[in-house]
Amino acid sequence: MKFVDEFQDPRLVKGLLKEIDALASRNTTFMEVCGTHTMALFRYGLRAMLPKLVKIISGPGCPVCVTPMNILDAAIEAVHKKGVILVTFGDMMRVPGSMSSLEAERALGSDVRVVYSGLDSLGIAERNPDKKVIFLGVGFETTSPSIACTVLEAARRGIDNFKLIAAHKLIPPAMKALLEAGEVKLDGFICPGHVSAIIGSEPYEFIPKKYGIPCVISGFEPVDILQSVLLLLRQIVDCVSRVEIQYSRSVKSDGNPIAKRYISEVFKISDSDWRGLGRIPASGLVLRERFEGYDALRDLDIELKESVEPPDCMCGEILRGVRSPSECGLFGSSCTPERPVGPCMVSSEGTCAAYYRYARH
Amino acid sequence: MAPEERILLAHGAGGKLTRQFVEQDILTRFRSLILGRLDDGAVLTLGDMRLAYSTDSFVVDPLFFRGGDIGKLAINGTVNDIAMCGAIPMYLTSSLIMEEGFPLADLRRILNSMQDASAEANVEIVAGDTKVVSAGSVDKIFINTSGLGIVEKEVSGSNAKVGDKIIINGFIGDHGVAILSEREGLDLKVPVSSDCAPLNGLVSSVLSATKCVHVMRDPTRGGLATTLNEIAIQSGIGIRIDEVAIPVRDSVRGACEMLGLDPLYIANEGKVVIFVSPDDASRVLDAMRAHKYGADAQLIGEVVTEPKGTVLMRTRIGGERIVDMLVGEQLPRIC
Fold this sequence. Notes:
Radius of gyration of chain A: 21 Å
Number of strands of chain A: 11
Oligomer: heterodimer
Helix content of chain B: 25-40%
Shape of chain A: globular
Strand content of chain A: 15-25%
CATH class of the largest domain in chain A: Alpha Beta
Structural class of chain B: alpha+beta
Number of helices of chain A: 16
Order of helices and strands of chain A: HEHHEHHEHEHEHEHEHHEHEHEEHHH
Strand order of the largest sheet of chain A: 4-3-5-6-11-10
Order of helices and strands of chain B: HHEEEEHEHEEEHHEHEHEHEEE
Number of strands of chain B: 14
CATH architecture of the largest domain in chain A: 3-Layer(aba) Sandwich
Number of domains of chain B: 2
Largest sheet of chain B: 7 strands, mixed
CATH superfamily of the largest domain in chain A: HypD, alpha/beta domain 1
CATH superfamily of the largest domain in chain B: PurM-like C-terminal domain
Number of domains of chain A: 3
Distance between the termini of chain B: 36 Å
Number of helices of chain B: 9
Distance between the termini of chain A: 32 Å
Strand content of chain B: 25-35%
């Protein structure tokens, strides 16, 4: 398949592994920030192919995992209200809230629907004028432009029964928070290519400048990831640190100006609560005043409650890269993909789910 | 306080929850050694006859899709379940449960398609039932079929032997992606047709080519990954497969890449996985490739001793990973 096969070519993989092996001379730890990278590393069996000196740990880049429990509880409270259709991405269905999940609520008769695009919720809203159609929007810079478009489109078409629970988050502030906390020693970041397709490379510049840590913006195929590891190792060998773009077929240094314009037209930046990381300044997106009419929580008069994490669940430490899933006492025993305790076991991009599905033996 | 347990869509997805439900709630009540084998159908002895008996219900949405419809699916689904027992399907029954107001034209189209499918599979519908319920009590039409066949060669999911070669008769994921591409809201114009087909003819030619077939199973809901896991567990063996060898169309791979799905978990309706002694693998491949439903047959893996109950895959780039059973629902109402 064009544009995929080239990046899964076993000969290229072999060559890159050889070069990586030659350059790796001491223990290095790289963090991939994004759940898509976590999954790709396991799906292709890449982790075990890398030399032992190169360790790759997973960071906080799984949108489902970092969405705090109180957002889920709010969504569940919303579906209990009369005349509400809740629409969301499939991954959110099985995430446990403090009492229930959207999947369980659907089984109890609530109208919960899964879509692939936020825009689909507008069609549902138009077909159900007597209902409120609430979109539970989670995700990073990759999904927020399409949600911004959905809000703009709702305004243009006058679809007033569409409402949004905006739980969108920004990646660079979370990386800053991790570095400031100083819990893990990192030699480099593998940054998510699709996020940079929107925001470009500039928002990461503070990382090499202030913290002296190399960053490579990477694609998601095996060759992309290995090439990014190689670029990071070269920076270390050359004693430099800068932001490099490996995923140049999709990423420009200034990103996608149109998408960025949509985001800033609809959303403003605010402090935001992250599961496992706590409140991070300027790390979330909320609706601007002129779009407040689309704010579901305000419309339904739902207040966000304090999130209480399940005891013994290590999702927080795992999201910060401090611990690996196998160190969690619940992993594989009382927490499995069928009966998840924490979100890292539910999401298809979650670190625990990846370890469990692909590498538990 | 634990919330009251309810049936979830995932209980019917053919993956882990389905298996747990069957083990905990069905097998504990209906203590039958035959049922306990958990094969696609039951193999029974009546007098000196060995018979295969199976049943299946069909709730696919949409009713009509590229490459088939609910009627064709209902006939072929049961025909295949019987064929997977190593039997020649003979007689079928069919029950229709319809919603008041369902267009007769659609019903006739479905019945015509059932007529064509039974003719192709060479089975006779010998009993049936018709129920109509008030609007909203079912979604348009649900169909149940059951069938009876004569056992030619006994096979079972618990019969895989270390060293067996694993063969599949063609491209995986076509049915699931064909359904997906017609679902409202996805707007995915993928030129893929469902692989819905009767496999009894293909199975007969394989069984006449070799006596050493140990397992046959059709990877429907839950896809190839789930079927291989079931066999690994039932037989207490390990399975190794090779990603490069598994036939997947570019269009199916592309659709899966885009939607974040894995073709290994996508449903098929005209595929069979065969476990055969290594010496006879090429004979099975030749027999399959000579048949119209096996032209793209491939050897995809083999049975190993360890790790037991586990499927491991050599990835496209030469890495290795576990292939687990389907957890949750990948896509509801595909059959």
